[in-house]
Design brief:
The chain has eleven helices and 13 strands. The protein has about 325 residues and is an alpha/beta fold. Bound molecules: uridine-5'-diphosphate.
Length: about 325
């Protein structure tokens, strides 16, 4: 039986990956420090004979008992609001966390895939974004802590591949959505759906002409699985090229939820990318992968999930964990 370590296991993507790899017959070791992750995402796996949970921060030395065949490094805050709240942890998990896991992969003879991001392209001057594009990133802007950590992550991962011959994979993930996103993490889809459910107006930042391309989580997980099982060490974009403006997206959410709320405009955050769409030629060619789930279908499933949550989740004050965490760090 293959043994697979998944970091960020209690997060949105990590928890779906745990499900997928257990379904593939792996023994899954899930690891999370629970700053942004939520145990409710993996509650259904606790006690499963092919799942073990480790409450651990991967920026500290990582030890797991026994052999490992695969490592999926998916631990990281992943929303612009999170980076602002825990900027240093965001840098550390992409940099030191990745270094620790590459060392672990080397020691165990495991293959590792790291979760990179379309943010390595910054506010892109090339559209749609191909893997050859080097990006347009502001290192000292509010997103710099995430973008530069992920760029460093790619660099050190490639160095372990070329210097040590480690089997490495790099997936560049574009905006992804689905059940188990955190309702109040500030990302646009949970923000809009949460606002609709609470009967609030939908907050569009800027004039809403900026674009994003949203991929349903099952499609992403399929792409990640295929990439891990491929022999491609180069970065591969995985995302849905179906591009939409944020203003149009707000209209789709209004239609989906049937809310009679309106759109209100708020200032555009600094360095908010004006456009984003993956060129997925490489994924098509190397992995035979294309996304299958239309936005209308994926949004319906996601909305049903958010509607099914207990009402207090809708009004939960977020970032309590961050405050506790930051407090502790300052006292240390
Ligand atoms: N956005 C918005 N209203 C919100 C939250 C986000 O208009 O309440 C916009 C945000 O400015 C960005 C886009 O939606 O242009 C996607 O934001 P998100 O934080 O989901 O991800 P990003 O792709 O920017 O990392």
């Amino acid at each position: 039986m293959k043994r697979t370590l998944i970091t960020g296991a209690a997060g949105f993507l990590g928890s779906h990956l745990c499900d997928r790899f257990i379904a593939e017959g792996h023994k899954v070791l899930g690891m999370d420090n629970l700053i942004t992750g939520d145990m409710s995402n993996i509650e259904h796996l606790m006690g499963h004979e092919h799942f073990e949970f480790y409450h651990h921060d991967v920026t500290k030395y990582v030890h797991v008992p026994g052999e490992l065949d695969y490592i999926l490094h998916f631990a990281s805050p992943a929303s612009p609001i999170d980076y602002l709240k825990i900027p240093i942890q965001t840098l550390k998990v992409g940099a030191m966390g990745t270094h620790n896991l590459l060392g672990l992969a080397l020691a165990k003879g495991a293959r590792i895939i790291v979760a990179s991001t379309s943010e390595v392209y910054g506010d892109p001057m090339v559209h749609p974004q191909t893997e050859e594009y080097w990006g347009n990133v502001n290192p000292v802007g509010p997103r710099g802590v995430y973008d530069e950590a992920k760029r460093y992550q790619e660099a050190i991962t490639m160095a372990y591949h070329t210097f040590h011959g480690l089997e490495t994979r790099i997936v560049r993930i574009f905006n992804t959505y689905g059940p188990r996103m955190r309702l109040n993490d500030g990302r646009v889809l949970p923000a809009f759906i949460g606002q609709a459910l609470r009967g609030e107006d939908l907050t569009v930042f800027g004039d809403g002409s900026q674009t994003r391309s949203f991929c349903y989580v099952d499609d992403l997980v399929e792409g990640i699985h295929r990439l891990l099982m491929s022999d491609c060490p180069d970065p591969v974009n995985v995302g849905n090229p179906d591009e939409i403006t944020i203003r149009q997206f707000a209209d789709e959410i209004i239609q989906l939820t049937g809310t009679d709320q309106k759109v209100i405009y708020k200032p555009l955050p600094k360095d908010d990318p004006t456009q984003r769409q993956p060129n997925i030629s490489r994924a098509k060619e190397i992995l035979g992968w294309t996304p299958k789930v239309d936005r209308s279908e994926g949004l319906k499933i996601t909305y049903d999930y958010f509607k099914s949550l207990p009402e207090d989740v809708l009004y939960r004050v977020e970032h309590k964990n961050f405050q506790d965490y930051n407090q502790r760090r300052k006292q240390e």
